[in-house]
Amino acid sequence: MRTQKGVQVRVPKKKESITNILKKNWQLYILILPAVIYFFVFNYMPLYGIQIAFKDYKAVDGIAGSAWVGWKNFTDFFHAYYFKRLLLNTLLLNIYYLLWSFPVPLILAILLNRIRGDRTKRAIQTCIYIPYFISTVVLAGMLYIFLSPSAGIFNILRESLGLKTIDFMSKPEAFRSIYIASGVWQSAGWGTILYIASLAGVDQELYEAADIDGASVWQKIRYIDLPSLVPVAVMVFILDCGKLVNSDTNKVLVMQTPGNVSTSDIIGVYVYNVGLGSGQFSYTAAIGLFTNLINFILIITVNKISKKITDVGLF
After folding, report:
1. Widest CA span in the chain
2. Do 105 and 191 form a contact (C-beta atoms < 8 A)?
3. Which residues of 115-137 are buried (b: 16+ CB within 10 A; e: fewer)?
4. pTM of this prediction?
5. CATH architecture assignment, domain 72-91+102-309
6. Of the candidates 263, 261, 269, which has an alpha carbon nearest to the alpha carbon of residue 287?
7. What percentage of residues in the chain have a pLDDT greater than 90?
8. Which letter does DSSP use for residue 56 in this model?
9. Residue 67: beta bridge partners?
């Protein structure tokens, strides 16, 4: 900025060339280069294979040499005999899971934040983090053991009360409850990490001022903790809504039995059986593209609604 005859005139800055910017910040670009390469190789290059959803893909002919079939794979899926059941089971399982699993980490984080003893707090955190590292197969094995009709702890308790034993894993009406309860137990502790980090960043003077004003514990939670958690909670909720047509296929596969197929038969399991079992790669690629498109629409819609209601969004 310079002055001419008492008037300040703003002189526009010259734009730096890309070469100069690269020379100044080359260390930062090298630092992010591995992440860029990773996402390019594993997230963008595979997009070339999307076209097999519109082709009759044959491994001998390759992607480029396979014949185009247009929307045939999509229409075949929409007219499939189990299409409605697959879609309904997938949506119900994920909606119920979202409704039950979303608030639990939030509540746990608030309760952990109320604990003042560091050793006690660390011990509790360790206990609730451990289930997250249990593999899916091991978790399913635990469920089969605990819910066994002959030696399972739940059926032993039922027998002690004079009730008949139940084969829970073969009951279609029990599948969703078992899936959701085990999932919440396994992931709730790990899900508290983001919320605890947000609460750690709250200005401690707010709590001190609340103590001076005589605020109760519930008032501190309502007026300090919850408002500070809203931005993070909303973003987590938006991301979770973007997975409503996806499920933990591995877990459903190991939990599926002939008795609970009517409720455990979801899109992911169908894709696994048809894609790997029958080798219908084009057909299953079309199903995958359809589910990803639905998830994309959901995440965009929920994000817009969130920005209007809470003024918080991913973008």
Report:
1. 101
2. yes
3. eeeeeeeeebbeebeebeeeebe
4. 0.84
5. Orthogonal Bundle (1.10)
6. 269
7. 59
8. E
9. 56
